[in-house]
Amino acid sequence: MRQASAAYAGDEIIKSRKDTTMKMKMIAPPVPNVPWQEKPEGIVNAPIWRYDENPVVGRNPSENVARIFNSAVMPYGEAFIGVFRGEQTNGVPHIYLGRSEDAIHWAFDKEKIPFVDADGNPAMPHYAYDPRLVKVEDTYYIIWCQDFYGASIGLAETKDFKTFTRLESPFIPYNRNAVLFPRKINGNFVMMSRPSDSGHTPFGDIFISESPDMVYWGKHRHVMGRGHAWWESVKIGGGAAPIETSEGWLLFYHGVSGTCNGFVYSIGGAILDLENPSKVLYRCENFILTPEEWYEERGFVPNVIFPCATIHDPDSGKIAIYYGAADSYVGLAFCYFEEIVEYIKEYSKVNEMDTELGKR
Ligand code: BMA
What we know:
The chain is mainly beta. 8% of the residues lie in helices and 42% in strands. The chain contains four helices and 22 strands. It has a five-stranded mixed sheet, with no helix packed on it. Strands 15, 16, 17, 18 and 19 form a five-stranded antiparallel sheet that branches. A hairpin with a 7-residue loop joins strand 18 and strand 19.
């Protein structure tokens, strides 16, 4: 299949990008200051490359926090904001707010995000990890994993990054990974999640659920299953919030392989139907990024790359992917929209479980 496309041979990359710009587009607000480094020579597999000064967040990033990883960022005004998984020095994870002018150098709040309930009273989760940050209409939503008599999903909303109001838990236990779509689909909010156990979960497929009001969730559908390829044979889970594009929802997710030394987490790519996102249109049989660098292979949990956010600019086609590395650091990687979509399509293999509506 690869030979059929000239898109990956030297200068042809640029030609291909120009040729397809007219046809393919991300549907999102422009972000002219998306963090970026041009593609280096010698990329032979998926057209994605790491920031050469990774990791962008190192160890002991702030007082009482030993490690920051698996964190989500987005443009905010002229600058950037993010929700960061901070592993405290007592070992308990919580969420911290961070701000940046360039989306590379981050300043973190010393205190955890002070969640409140609907009456304005303090309402802190016992623990909170793997946060995502997604704007739908005029509200920012934070989605994370927390204790709800077992691991489940926590939710909060903010309009100003000053008051963070908890919402009802969307799902009963156990579920440890959830991401919201950035717009309503057919009038409903849509959340992607991965039902699991309360431990390290040796299984797991991606589902979606709908809600008219962010309180009541239903109309659950299966999106895609594990076991598709060897690198994602144990479990899969949502990653960055899906990007709306002319081709469908572009999804960067994580896939886990089991080895005699434990799990290995890689990044996968898929494209979901815009109106029925439980239908997978394309799913790349190859990982698009797998642990290779010291900060991905070595750390608190070795061999983990865990995507949680993108910053992307429809005008230039630039996508910056933020990922947790080895449960210890934040890494940044780059790709061009058209090139990554071409790669996903070129190596796409979908099965019946992927392409069906996901309802039984
Ligand atoms: C998963 C989650 C992630 C973590 C990964 C690797 O189950 O807990 O937060 O990055 O394991 O340890």
